[in-house]
């Protein structure tokens, strides 16, 4: 698990942490899915910074779990949570790409709100033939 202060550079630091672990992930995801992993993680961390209401004493936590069939990323912040839209709409001019991209690129995603807000996504691993 990695922790990041809720700061404007948090998303870049999360991408850098994933890149530093590329050896592990490159064994389970192809290059396109690695790009998706970095992009979606960055978007969720950015959303946490902008909307999560976190304070420096309560950092954003990012956990990446490699399972037999998929890779799961969870981003946890101390914010109040949010209602998941039925269908994430098209992003606006000033932003709104985060959940739109997660909805389009992840195989599954969702939220949990037990005490802290968790937004997670999963990318399926390729099956061997």
Please specify the SSE layout and strand pairing.
Elements: E1 2-4, H1 10-20, H2 22-26, H3 31-51, E2 60-66, E3 70-77, H4 97-105, E4 108-112, E5 117-124
Antiparallel strand pairs: 1-2, 2-3, 3-5, 4-5
Helix pairs in contact: 1-3, 3-4
Summarize it.
This protein has helices at about 10-20, 20-25, 30-50, 95-105; strands at about 1-5, 60-65, 70-75, 110, 115-125.
Protein structure class: alpha+beta
Low-confidence stretches: none
If you average the pLDDT, what whole number results? 85
| Main beta-sheet strand count, sense and barrel state | 5 strands, antiparallel
> What is the chains' assembly state?
single chain
Number of DSSP E strands: 5
CATH architecture: 2-Layer Sandwich
CATH homology superfamily: Histidine kinase-like ATPase, C-terminal domain
CATH topology (fold) name: Heat Shock Protein 90
Q: What order do the strands of the largest sheet run in, or round the barrel if closed?
A: 1-2-3-5-4
Q: What is the number of independent domains?
A: 1
Our Rg estimate from Cα atoms comes to 14 Å
Helix content: 25-40%
């Amino acid at each position: 698990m990695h922790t990041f202060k809720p700061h404007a550079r948090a998303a870049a630091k999360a991408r850098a942490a994933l890149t530093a672990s590329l050896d592990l992930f490159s064994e389970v995801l192809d290059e396109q899915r690695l790009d998706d992993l970095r992009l979606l993680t960055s978007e969720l961390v950015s959303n946490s910074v902008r909307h999560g209401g976190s304070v420096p004493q309560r950092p954003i936590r990012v956990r990446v779990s490699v399972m037999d069939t998929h890779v799961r990323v969870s981003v946890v912040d101390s914010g109040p949570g949010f209602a998941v839209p039925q269908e994430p709409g098209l992003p606006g001019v000033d932003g709104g790409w985060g959940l739109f991209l997660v909805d389009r690129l992840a195989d599954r995603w969702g939220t949990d709100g037990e005490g802290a807000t968790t937004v997670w996504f999963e990318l399926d691993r390729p099956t061997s033939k």
